Amino acid sequence: MEIGNPPPSKAGFTDSELEGMRPGPRDPATFLPGSKDSKSVPSRLSAFRRSLGYTKSSEVAKKFPLSRRTRFRNGVLRFFMMKSFLPLFLLLSGLAGSALAQERSLSEQAQRSLESEGLKLPLSWPSDVSLFIQPQGLQQTAQNPWAPWPTLDWTTSTPQAQGMDPQVLKQALQYAQDQDSKGIVVIRNGYLVGEWYGQGWNKDTKERGYSIAKSFSSCLLGMLIEQGTLGSVNDSAALYVPEWRDSSHGLVTLRNLLSMDSGLHWDPISELAFLLAADQNAFAIGLSMDHPPCDEWLYHNAAVQVLSEVILNATGKQPHELARPYLWDKIGMWGAWWKTDQRGNTMTYQSVYASAREFAKFGYLYLRNGEWDGEQLLSESWVRESTRPSQYTNPFYGYLWWLNSGSLVMPDVPADAYMAAGANEKRIYVVPSLALIAVRLGNPSRSWDDNQFLGLICQSVL
Question: Which CATH superfamily is domain 108-459 in?
Answer without folding.
Answer: DD-peptidase/beta-lactamase superfamily (3.40.710.10)
